[in-house]
Amino acid sequence: MLTDIDHIVQARLHTRESGPEGHEITATLRYHRDDPLAARVAFPPAVSLDGAEVTWVFGRGLLTTGLYEPAGEGDVHVRPAGPDRTALEFRAPEGVALVEVATTDLRIFLARVYEAVPPGHEFRGVDMDAVVAFLLGEE
Q: Which residues, in sequence order, are bridge partners of residue 30?
């Protein structure tokens, strides 16, 4: 049975306020069984503007593609940042944050994610008739 996955990583956060060197933070990569196409990254309250944990949600495929080539549209972009780092860029009205994570950590996380739910198996066991009925307000 699939369990949720949390993978803690060390990252370097770059913002306008942090300067060119950025600063080290701890982030948590998350995968939830009830949202099989999504990956999440949670940042601690200490690095947010309002003092609350910040979680970004995006497609797990975006994270996978971004290991090899620039990927993303809109608020989240992922790209290689050298031979052993991957950059995750988050855009919000308040500004842009660039987070660099060891590519090895992302690969370990994604291996666990794809082992738990292989591509093409995301909706196995889901009652699609019930989903459609819910979306159409027939439930």
A: 6, 40
